[in-house]
Amino acid sequence: MFLFVYSVLGVTIFSGIKQDGAISVHANFTNFHNAIITLFRMATGESWHELMYDCARQKSIVFECLATQDYYSMKEFGRMECGNQVLAYAYFISFMIIVSFIFLNLFIAIILESFNTSQNEEGLKIGQQTLNQFSEIWSEFDKKGKGFIKYHELEQIMNRLISEES
To answer: Which of 29, 87, 91, 119 is the most buried (most CB within 10 A)?
Structure first.
């Protein structure tokens, strides 16, 4: 929902900006599809500041753009609008702040869920009765009490333990 709202805002505000530098064929706000992809790219932290600066860019010696553009000039020259500094800074910085909180909380939630899962798995401990049965069956196979048995006898111990449990 959050990406949807910011995509619509991005298309509304920045769709006419001239493509130069970070605003390119691959990262722009010309339509909803490109805006969603651009915002997802920004959410990963890749070049979001460059996109912000290009959307805030004003006319200068090295950057030729139009303050406003009508349909006919857009049809003839392509998208040539200048950026809006106030809107660009507000849009991009607010997006990055909100996204960083969302991703930070998501990351923490994943860690806590993994921790909770591991705690639940550790909670499946063997009861005292099962340990007592295991000791009795073990002593039948280890008559001298050395604490060692033959490896093939372990399967027999486990089978007896399972059969007595059920």
So the answer is: 29
